[in-house]
Amino acid sequence: MRRYPYLSEASLDPNDPHRTTKFNDYYFAISDPIGERQSVFIDGNSLPKRFRSLQPGSLIRIGETGFGTGLTFIVACINFLNEASRNARLQWISTEQYPLRTGDLIQSIKALPLTTDMEQLAEELIGDWPDPIPTCHRRFFGDGRIILDLHFNDSTSVINDLSGTIDAWCLDGFAPERNPEIWEPALFKAIAEKSHQETTFSTFTSARKVRDGLASAGFKVEKVPGFAKKRERIEGNFTGNRTVNPWTPTSSIHSKHSIAIIGAGLAGAWTAYAFARRRIPVVVFERQTPAVAASGNPQGITYAKLSIEATPNSLLQMQSLAHLKNWFQIFSADNWNQSGVVLLAKNDKERLHQKKLVEALPSAYPLIQSITRQEASILAELPLAYGGSFLPDAGWLNPRGCVWELLDHPLITVIPYRHVRQVKRIEAMSLLEFEGHTLGFHQHLYNAVIWANALEAQKHVPMPLSLKPIRGQITYVQSGNYPKIPICGDAYVAPQSHGLMTCGATYTPNSENLTPILEDDLTNIDTINSLVAKPIWNHGHVTGNRVSIRTATPDYMPVVGQVAESEIWKSLLENLKYDATFQPTQPLPYIRGHYVLAGLGSRGTLTAPIAAELLVSQILGEVLPVSESIRDALSPDRFFRRRLVRGLT
Ligand SMILES: Cc1cc2nc3c(=O)[nH]c(=O)nc-3n(C[C@H](O)[C@H](O)[C@H](O)COP(=O)(O)OP(=O)(O)OC[C@H]3O[C@@H](n4cnc5c(N)ncnc54)[C@H](O)[C@@H]3O)c2cc1C
Q1: For the chain, does the N or the C end have fewer beta carbons within 10 angstroms?
Q2: pLDDT in tens, 161-202
Q3: d(CA 294, ligand 1 centre) in Å
Q4: What would be the CATH architecture of the domain defined by 259-293+402-464+561-569+592-640?
């Protein structure tokens, strides 16, 4: 069984905010912490010079083991902001298995002799500091020019499964004699596998174990004078053979390219926003107006349905949940309400599942708490039929309002009433052909096209995406009785907003019928009455309804990524028919500039943001915010590969 990663918090010395009792060691050289970071990691990797030589629009990806107090990150950011051109970008990918509590981080940072610029960044870091949830937490700094991917997990597992390549490594972490677990051959091997011919490394130690480990993994290792009292330390560069993952698409798009997004629902809006927050302009084409389809409901519940096993689906939902507090701050109070959500357990089977889930989940942070019927009723301010669990970080939002807020950005151009009819490939470009609502026929040429148009994506992608429609009807209810927070069970009931509450939704697979059905309203009313101790609502309270179509996949995970050249794959992967574990030796080809984000199913309000970040990172050659295993589990070609294995194509 795949278990959730284990995480424990750092133990700071109460008398010395720069020392951890766990390893009986300091986070940095206490005589001159900033000087040491600058000399060992920044200068050791020649970062000032490399920052200066970054072309406008290009990116440098720096990996770090052991984030600690974030001081190296802060010093690197200041160097980057001072040296790099205005349009260059920095991605800092770091690991930390013993994250500091916010209070300890504050104490530790406040005791450092920071410059004013550093203090400002430190304030931002403290404000954005993630809860101790073992996942990758993505944060943006420097007006979107700097991405921090903070992986709360152990370095070796993170780097082993990292999806992307690193340009410079800052190998930190406590001294090898105090923290021997991290400095193991498995870590050096993982680091080498994520390096290329120009990748450098630098570290504060010259311990033999580290020297030999890096050398045998393929690094040229050089001894150089150490910082302050340390006699020597090592730095160097990768000279081994580059490891190529044949299944992973490589980026060919940069920030100066023209980018079109098709579809202005949650998928399209979050993708557009992900580009815009990196200061990259995009155009969004929508056949009607934004949020007219599945994303047009006035209320949706943003919560996770996690499994006892740490499946890719569950890890993705957990990561999404971990980001709500930070990423959803952009929304107005009218559109996002982090109220917490009650998830009822109506029988012994569901109760047992929830109990096991609470036990299986990482314990450092209460993602889900068991609650009694009485506690659930107090939270809901309504007498409920059952107890169950409470997800404090979950909430409810107005998907329609959120789509409009996301698209309201100077770098996002929305062109409504443009239905993409077909796309032609002209060398490296894509020619989109539309029928405009009022203006007739149009053509536009783009370097990158992102299909964020739900079920319709299937029509434009030459590969089976296995998308299926699931009709859903929500019902609007006006009564004197509303729950204080959302209640979910066989249906959901949301708190009232502007005098109405939403409940639902029906679930009719393989139907695209958009006509409301009276019986569906009655079903919704019956189902929400089954969640409360005594029936409260009746059909007299129904004031309206709305029908829309979910786009789901057979494994209930979205499809996210570049579109494969399926005809070429077919011939290169012929052997899959005979050997399901067959690995190609050459990288597989992808359609240049064609990407898809669809199949958000019933969890789109939760997973759309991280799916969009994954996609935009892939497009721009950043290290992904999810592991390679999760990228693979979400890739649009997964169904096609399964068909090849079964000999069905
Ligand atoms: C009834 C119902 C209740 C739901 N409740 C919840 C909930 O409580 N919590 C939750 O997390 N999720 C919920 N969901 C799921 C969530 O709403 C979806 O996952 C999400 O809205 C999907 O977003 P999307 O952008 O992929 O699709 P859509 O919102 O359908 O957007 C696709 C857009 O593409 C446009 N388009 C299509 N083809 C073209 C073309 N060729 N050219 C130009 N434009 C095109 C469409 O007009 C549309 O605007 C619910 C869904 C339904 C249907």
Answers
A1: N
A2: 999 999 999 998 767 777 777 789 999 999 999 999 999 999
A3: 3
A4: 3-Layer(bba) Sandwich (3.50)
Side chain identity at residue 535, one-letter code = P
In degrees, rounded to 5, the angle at the alpha carbon of residue 68 between the alpha carbons of residues 133 and 58 is 85
Position 57, amino acid: G
Q: Strand 16-20 relative to strand 12-13: parallel, antiparallel, unpaired?
A: antiparallel
| Residue 279 backbone zone (phi > 0: left; psi -120 to 50: alpha; other: beta) | left
Alpha-carbon distance of 36 to 18, in angstroms, equals 14
**Global pTM value:** 0.97
DSSP 360-376: HS-TTS-SSEEE-HHHH
φ, ψ of residue 488 to 5 degrees: the values are -120, 140
Each residue of 207-250: pLDDT tens digit? 999 999 999 999 999 999 988 888 899 999 999 999 999 999 98
Gap between the Cα atoms of 605 and 603, Å rounded: 6
In the reported structure, the alpha carbon of residue 250 is separated from the centroid of ligand 1 by a whole-number distance in angstroms of 28
Span from the CA of 289 to the centroid of ligand 1 (angstroms): 12
Q: How far does the centroid of ligand 1 lie from the alpha carbon of residue 295, in Å?
A: 4
Report how far ligand 1's centroid is from the alpha carbon of 354 (Å): 29
**Nearest alpha carbon, ligand 1 atom 20:** 604
CB atoms closer than 10 angstroms to residue 212: 13
Please say whether the beta carbons of 90 and 53 come within 8 A: no
Q: Where are the domains of the chain?
A: 12-238, 259-293+402-464+561-569+592-640, 341-392+468-552
What are the residues whose beta carbons fall under 8 Å from the beta carbon of 561, sequence distance 6 or more?
A: 249, 595, 596, 614, 615, 618, 631, 634, 635, 636, 637
Ligand 1 first shell, C-beta below 6 A = 262-268, 285-288, 292-295, 297, 300-302, 399, 419-420, 452-454, 456, 472, 474, 492, 504-505, 548-551, 598, 600-606
Which of 270, 286, 442 maximizes ligand 1 atoms within 8 Å of its Cβ, making it the mutation to test the pocket? 286
Radius of gyration of the chain, Cα coordinates, nearest whole angstrom: 26
SS3 state at 13: strand
